[in-house]
């Protein structure tokens, strides 16, 4: 369903809806006259929106790492509003630290939220979208999926994995009329960095940490989540949405810079790459 002046309201399922980008997406959808299921570990911050939109906002307490709970939440959402149109996998966590410093528990926790949480939501929502013949899954990725950067390696790993899964999902779901878009935002004032979990620092990386802190202090300028929400509203209104959407000039330029660097490297090693392959008959 597409929301128009004369048409029915769309139903959104947004994870991580209580703050940051998720909150902005929920506010934009409600402002457009749509109905929203806002899922979050803590739904108290959504109380004001529920008060203003009691008939169009359902707040659900949800830990996306709990697969059974995710399936139950999606079932409740569909039953409550009678359908489902747009799924926004926004819930995420940031674990910072050098790759060497990560414990097994921390590494798995990073993947549990950013990869498996989104996977469970997709698995729970897809049968409903497929049965109704369409829908749109929006995967909120990150600038961290463009490349690996010091101190956010495991975060990048989780977002790289999310994007690989989402590309396959897009190809699989397309035959059922379900669209998938990977959104790669730059910097927004979302509280992600203030709610992050850090590893125990190894002193050998102190000089690198100091260098990174100087870079962040000199060049970190973030935007209002409202601007990202405006872009997502345009995205879901499109009849031909892209597989990927970059949000922000910085991430846009960085995506092209990284792509050019990779192409230059591949070209420089072309002879080695091509010499490493020669078709031969299957061995006996």
Description:
The longest helix is centred in the middle third of the chain and has 29 residues, at 104-132. This protein is of the alpha/beta class and 284 residues long. It has a single domain (11-252), classed as NAD(P)-binding Rossmann-like Domain (Rossmann fold). Residues 1-6 have low confidence and may be disordered. It has 9 helices and 9 strands. A 7-stranded parallel sheet has the order 3-2-1-4-6-7-9, sandwiched between helices. Helix 3 runs parallel beside helix 4. Helix 5 (153-173) links the parallel strand 6 (135-140) and strand 7.
Please summarize what this structure is:
The chain is 48% helix and 15% strand. It is an alpha/beta fold.
Question: Which features does this protein show?
Answer:
single chain; 284 residues; alpha/beta; Rossmann fold; seven-stranded parallel β-sheet; two-stranded parallel sheet; 9 strands; 15% strand
| Terminal-residue CA separation | 56 Å
Which word captures the global form? globular
Order of helices and strands: EHEHEHEEHEHEEHHEHH
Please indicate the percent range of residues in DSSP E strands (runs of 2 or more).
5-15%
Q: Classify the fold: give the CATH topology.
A: Rossmann fold
Number of domains: 1
Based on secondary structure, the structural category is alpha/beta
The average pLDDT score comes to 93
For the largest beta-sheet, the strand count, sense and barrel status come to: 7 strands, parallel
- For the largest beta sheet, what order do the strands appear in spatially? 3-2-1-4-6-7-9
Radius of gyration: 20 Å
**Helix percentage range:** 40-55%
| Name of the CATH homologous superfamily | NAD(P)-binding Rossmann-like Domain
């Amino acid at each position: 369903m597409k929301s128009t002046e004369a048409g029915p309201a769309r139903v959104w399922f947004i994870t991580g809806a209580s703050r940051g980008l998720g909150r902005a997406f929920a506010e934009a959808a409600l402002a457009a006259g749509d109905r929203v299921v806002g899922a979050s570990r803590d739904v108290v911050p959504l109380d004001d929106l529920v008060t203003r939109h009691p008939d169009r906002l359902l707040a659900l307490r949800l830990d996306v790492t709990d697969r059974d709970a995710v399936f139950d939440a999606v079932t409740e959402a569909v039953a409550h509003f009678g359908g489902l149109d747009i799924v926004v996998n926004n819930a995420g966590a940031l674990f910072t630290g050098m790759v060497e410093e990560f414990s097994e528990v921390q590494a798995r926790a990073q993947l549990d939220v950013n990869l498996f949480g989104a996977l469970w939501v997709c698995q729970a929502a897809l049968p409903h979208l497929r049965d109704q013949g369409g829908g749109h899954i929006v995967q909120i990725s990150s600038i961290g999926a463009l490349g690996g950067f010091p101190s956010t390696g495991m975060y990048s790993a989780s977002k790289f994995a999310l994007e690989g899964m989402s590309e396959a999902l897009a190809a699989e779901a397309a035959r059922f009329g379900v669209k998938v878009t990977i959104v790669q935002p730059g910097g927004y004032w979302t509280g992600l960095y203030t709610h992050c979990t850090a590893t125990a620092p190894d002193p050998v990386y102190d000089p690198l940490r100091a260098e990174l802190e100087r870079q962040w202090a000199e060049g970190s300028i973030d935007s209002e989540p409202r601007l990202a929400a405006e872009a997502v509203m345009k995205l879901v209104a499109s009849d031909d949405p892209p597989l990927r959407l970059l949000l922000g000039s910085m991430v846009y330029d960085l995506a092209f810079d990284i792509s050019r660097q990779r192409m230059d490297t591949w070209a420089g090693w072309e002879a080695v790459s091509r010499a490493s392959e020669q078709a031969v008959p299957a061995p006996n």
